[in-house]
Amino acid sequence: MKKILKKYRKFQLSLSPQQNLLYGFSIYAIIGWFLLCLPIVQKQAVSALDSLFIATSAISTTGLVTVSIFDTYNGFGQFIVMLLFQIGGIGYMTFTSFILLSKKSDLTHWHQRILNAEFTMPKGFQIKDFLKSVIIFTVTIEILGALCFYIAFTNAGVEHNFAIWSSIYHSVSAFCTAGFGLYNDSFEQFAGNTAINTIISVLAICGSLGFIVVTDFWNRLSGKTKRVTYTTKIILGAMTLLLTMGTVMIYFFEPSVAQLGENKLMASFFQAMTALTTVGFNTIPLGGFSLAILLVVIFLMYVGASPSGTGGGMKTTTLTALIAIMWNRIRNNKRITFLGKSIPLERLYVATSVFMLYASVIFVSTFLLAMSEDFPLHQILFETTSAIGTVGLSTGITGDLTSWGKMVLIIVMFIGRLGLLTFGLAILARRNKLTKRKKEEDLAL
Amino acid sequence: MKKILKKYRKFQLSLSPQQNLLYGFSIYAIIGWFLLCLPIVQKQAVSALDSLFIATSAISTTGLVTVSIFDTYNGFGQFIVMLLFQIGGIGYMTFTSFILLSKKSDLTHWHQRILNAEFTMPKGFQIKDFLKSVIIFTVTIEILGALCFYIAFTNAGVEHNFAIWSSIYHSVSAFCTAGFGLYNDSFEQFAGNTAINTIISVLAICGSLGFIVVTDFWNRLSGKTKRVTYTTKIILGAMTLLLTMGTVMIYFFEPSVAQLGENKLMASFFQAMTALTTVGFNTIPLGGFSLAILLVVIFLMYVGASPSGTGGGMKTTTLTALIAIMWNRIRNNKRITFLGKSIPLERLYVATSVFMLYASVIFVSTFLLAMSEDFPLHQILFETTSAIGTVGLSTGITGDLTSWGKMVLIIVMFIGRLGLLTFGLAILARRNKLTKRKKEEDLAL
Ligand SMILES: [K+]
Ligand SMILES: [K+]
C-alpha cells in the first residue's frame, strides 16, 4: 500500500502544475459521479449520464442541471453536490493545501507552484498568507451568509428545519458562485424579497471578486500596505461599470421586467449580477427574455468574474487588457497603456489567447449542439456560454438536450472551470523552454 | 473657383491618410446615392433610403440589396452601380492615383502615404510598381473574365445582346468581389453549369487573393526576386486550408446540397469560396441551410479574404497571427513564432485589435437589429457578418428589414469596406505620438 502511494506521489511530482490541476479536478468529478450514482443518495432513479452531468456541473460550480436536485437526490445526495461545488469553488488545490496545513506539515515548493498556476497572481503575493486568507474568508462569509439566509427564509415563511439546511446550502452555493439551489424555480418565488436578493448578491460578489482583492484589502486595512494594487482597482472598476451597464440595459429594454413594478430595478440588477458573477441564480425566467437582452446577458456571462475568485468566464481583467490593446492601436500609440500604467507584453498575449480560446470553444460547442439539437441559435449559444463561463443560467433547454448534447456540455463545463489556458497548457505545454531565437518576419494584416 | 480648389487641396493635405480614405469613400457614396436617386436611371420608383443602401452596398462591394437591381434600375443605373463597385473594389485611392498617373504627373509623397494606409503592405514594396500591377492586372483579368462569361452565357442560352452586358457586369462584379448580379436568384439557375462556376471562382479568388500576392508572383516569374514572401505563403496556405475545410463541411453535413447529385461537390466548393473570398454570389439558396452549416459560413465570412485584395473580412493573415499567439501561449513559448518565423509585436497587436473590433461591431449591430427586427438570431447574425465582411450573402431578410435596420447595415457595410482599424484611426488617432514612457504595471488575468 505504501509502495503504491509512493509511486503515485512520484507520478504527481512528474506532472506540471497545470496537469496536476487537470487530474485533480477529474478525480473529484469521478468520485462525485460514483457517489451520485449510488441508489441510497437518490429519491428517484436517475441515469448515469445525468449523474455525471450533475457531478461535473457541481465540481465546475456551473449549476446547469438536467434533473431537479431537490426531486432527485435526498439529503445525503444534496450534501455530496454541496461538497463538490465547495471544492470546485475554492479550488481543489486550496482544499488539498488546507488538509496539509491542518496536519502542521509545511507547504512544499511543489504545492506553491500549483497554487500559482490556479490563481494567477501578480508578483509579491505570499502564497501562505494568501491561503490563510482564503480559508478564513470563505468560512467566515459562508457562516454569516447562512445566518442571514436563515432569518430571511424563516421570515419568508419557510419551515424551520428545511430553512436550516436551505440556508447552509444556498450560502455555500452563492459564495462559490455555484448557482445550485433546492428550489426548482431557482429564486423566482423570492423575486420581490429584498433581503434574499441582497444576501445572494453580497455573497456572489464577495466570492467572484476574488481572493486577490480580499487579501489586498485585508493588507490595506491592517496597515501592511499603503494602497490597493493596480489589479484590484481594475477589477473593482470593471465590475462596477459592467454591473451598471447590465442593470440599465435590462431595466430599460427588457419587456418582461416591466410588470414587476417597484421591484423592477432590483430584478434588473439581480439578473446582471447573476450573469457577471457567474453565480447563475435567477429571479425572472430567462426563457421569456427578449433576444436583444439575452445577447447582453450572453456578453456578461462571456466576460464573467475576476481572476482568483470562485467565478468563471474570461475575467474582467482580460476584457480590460483587450480594450487597452484596441484603444491604444486606434490612438496610434506604440505601447499598450491603461489608466496611466503600461501593461506587460506577456499579459497582453495571455489576454488575446484567453479571449480566442473562449471564442473557439463557444463556436465549436455551438456548432456541435446545432448538429445534435433542435433548438434555435439563441438558446444554444446561451447554453454554451453559460457552460463555458460556469454560470448555470439557462433558457430552459438543459433537461431536454440529447445525450450527445449533454456530453458536449459536460466537457465544456469542465474546461470552463479549469480555465482554458490551464487546460491547454496541461495538454500541450512543452517542458523544455529553450528555443533558438528566430528571425523576425513581417506579416501584412 | 480656383481658390476653392486650392482651399480644398489644403484641407486634404491637413488630413491623415485614414481620414482621407474616410472622406473619399463618403464622397463616392454620396455621389452614387445622388445619381441612383435620379428618375432617369430607374425602371420603377425606389425610396431614397433604398438608393442609399444600394450605393453604399456597391461602393463597399458588399452586394446586399433591398431591391432587385435588374427590376429597379435601367442600363444606365446598372452602369452606375457597376462603376461604384469597380471604384470600391480596387480602392478609391488606386482610382485617383490612376487618374493622376494618366495625366503624367507623378505620385506625390502624400498619395503614397494614403496608398500605404489602404493596402497594408510589408516593407520593401515599391508603391509605383505596385500600382501599375494593380491596374494592368485588374483590366486584364476583367476583360478575360468578360470574354469567358460571354461564351459561357451564350452556351447556356442567354440572348446575345444581354449576354454582352451581363458578361461585363458580372466579370467586374466577381473580380471586385462585389456580388452584384443581374439575376434575381444570384447564380442559382447556373448551379450545375461548370463553366460559369469556374469563371466566378477564378475571378473572385484572383481578386480576393490581393495585389500583394500578384505583385509577388509577378516579381518571382519575371526573375526580379528569387522566392515569394512569407506573407504570400501564409495567404495561400490559409486560403487553401479554409476552402478545403469549408467545402468538406458543406459537402458532408449540409442536407440541402444532398439532392444535387453529381453537382454536389461543385456546389459545396462554390458556397465555401463565395463566403471566404467575400464575393457573395450563391448557387444554392442560403435560407434553406441548416443552422450548423450557417455557422460555418458565418465563420468563413468573418475570416474573409486577404489583405490588399478586393475582398473584406478580418483577413486570413489576422486569423493566422491570432492562432500563432494562441498556440505559442499554450505551448508556453515566450516569443510568438509561426512556421519557423517570429512575428513582430506590432502586427500581433494589430491582429488582436482587428479581431476585437470586428467582434464588437458584429455584437453591437446584432444587438441593434435584435431590437428593431423580428427575425431569429441566426438570420440577424448572418446578415450582420455578411455586411461587415462585405460579403453580400443573405438568408433572404434584407428586403424585409425596417428602415432602422437598413440604416444599421448601411453603416456596418461602410465600416466594413474602409476597414475597422482604418475607420478607428481616421476618427481617433492622435497626430502627436510623443508620449512619456510609463511604468510597467502587472495585471493579473
Ligand atoms: K454558477
Ligand atoms: K461581396
UniProtKB/TrEMBL annotation, chains A, B:
It comes from the Bacteria. One of its GO terms (biological process) is metal ion transport. It is a multi-pass membrane protein. Pfam families: TrkH (PF02386). Keywords: Cell membrane, Ion transport, Membrane, Transmembrane, Transmembrane helix, Transport. Its main location: membrane. GO terms for molecular function: monoatomic cation transmembrane transporter activity. One of its GO terms (cellular component) is plasma membrane. InterPro entries: Cat_transpt (IPR003445). The chain crosses the membrane at residues 20-40, 52-70, 76-101, 130-152, 164-183, 195-214, 234-253, 274-303, 348-371, 407-429. It is found in: Cell membrane. This is Potassium transporter TrkH. It comes from Aestuariibaculum sediminum.
